[in-house]
Amino acid sequence: MGQLYYEIAKKGENLAFPGGLYPSVGSGGIISGGGIGTLMRKFGLAADNVLDARVMNVNGEILDRESMGKDLFWAIRGGGGSSFCVILAWKVKLVRVPSKLTVFTVRRKLHGQTINLLQKWQNVSHKLSRNLFMRVLIQNMGIGSKKIVQVSFQGLFLGRVSELLPMLNQTFPEFELVTKDCFQDPVVNCAIGLPCIKKECFEVPWIHTTLYFASKRTNDSIEFMVNKTMPKRKNYYKATSDFVKSPLPKEVWGMIRTMFSDEERPMMIFDPLGGRMDEISKFEIPFPYRKGNLFNIQYMVNWYDNSENISNKKIKWLRELYEKMKPFVSHFPRNGYLNYRDLDFGKNDGEYRYSNSRVWGEKYFDGNFERLAKVKSKVDPSNFFRFQQSIPPFSVST
User: Fold this and answer.
1) Which residue spans adopt a coiled-coil conformation according to this UniProt entry (predicted)?
2) Which of 102, 322, 377, 396 is the most buried (most CB within 10 A)?
3) To 10 degrees, what angle do helices 112-124 and 251-261 make?
């Protein structure tokens, strides 16, 4: 995605693409899985902005939108292309953005007053102007006995600071975000284990907002977007996800704080929906989480030492947190985002039976799973494209 963003920026500062936040993520996967990002409340998902695609089918034929047919074109925009074909190229629709956008972060310790802010955020974040995307990150900061559980309200606004502040301070006066907090020297976003400043905001072109959400300086070179140098230290993680249709009760935040206090490198990311997302039918593409969904949650725990006892402990901790959240999130089925794949949802285990795959398939696609399996029957009846959570051909038998 970084290569795409980099090429767009070279064409002009008023062009953008509503893709994901991390430049190292591959476009073939993120777009075919939906593509949540900072511009989705204004323009929809990455997959909502696909005009055409070039794929190779099971017979080795190269197809475009017209020759692949409407069913396969529907399936690969949110259903995960790897179950059906090989994605070779996307033709995407760029969107127009202002010359300057505003990014900001307001940080608080997770305690009483912050819990009140979180309650307000989850009730209004999906109703705010579609020009404003404001997510929440919860993570541990500091080391040892100085460790605190921190909440970051991090946002992107499609406009200038002078437009944002009146809107933001009307809804969240507790942020106390004022003009003097902006236009300062950019700072590096906080990494796990490092101290943070309380608040910040910057006016930057769109390409530099992608740097900001990738935890870089807003004035860093955009060459970072095409930098493929691997990090010196390997990071391991376990992640999963939820969608939320009703505000979480107040006591959930206390449970999260307790759980986080016992773990070194946990994170939860809450991405608000609403806006343009509410206007697109849940059947338009396989991604079904439209009107009625307030926000998405991503859970993650990270570690460096991948010895068996450490990794097992981390995974157990995440599974426990996920289980404790069960009463408060979507249910029947409990949903998750395809691009945050979780094998705990279930897997094919070599059998590739439709009846078995429904267990995890309906978690990702809800009522769209059956149609995806029927497309699979049409384009790959021999199930050549298969893996642990690939979509099998449709069958009415068990």
Assistant:
1) none
2) 102
3) 120
> Which pLDDT value is given to residue 198?
86
Domain harbouring 49, CATH code? 3.30.465.10
Domain assignment of residue 15, yes or no: yes
Cα dist. 71→88, 124, 378 in Å? 18, 36, 9
**Look-up of token digits 């300062």:** 184
pLDDT value of position 195? 46
Which residues in the chain land under pLDDT 70?
Answer: 142-145, 183-197, 230, 397-398
Which domain covers residue 69, as residue numbers? 2-96
Domain contains 6: yes
So what's the pLDDT on residue 189?
46
| Total domains, the chain | 1
156 is a domain residue: no
Task: Please give the positions annotated as active site.
Answer: 340
The whole-model pTM stands at 0.93
Give the single-character DSSP code of 381.
T
Of all residues in the chain, the percent with pLDDT exceeding 90 is 80
End-to-end CA, the chain: 40
| Strand ranges in 57-162 using DSSP code E only, listed in sequence order | 62-63, 86-92, 95-96, 101-109, 132-141, 148-157
Read off the pLDDT of residues 89-115 as tens digits, 9 standing for 90 and up: 999 999 999 999 999 999 999 988 999
Structure tokens at 71: 């069913």
**How far apart, in Å, are the Cα atoms of 220 and each of 160, 208, 210, 215, 371?**
20, 8, 11, 11, 45
Task: Return the half-sphere exposure (C-beta side, CA atoms, 13 A cut-off) of residue 382.
Answer: 4
Cα–Cα distance measured from residue 232 to residue 255, given in angstroms and rounded to the nearest whole number? 35
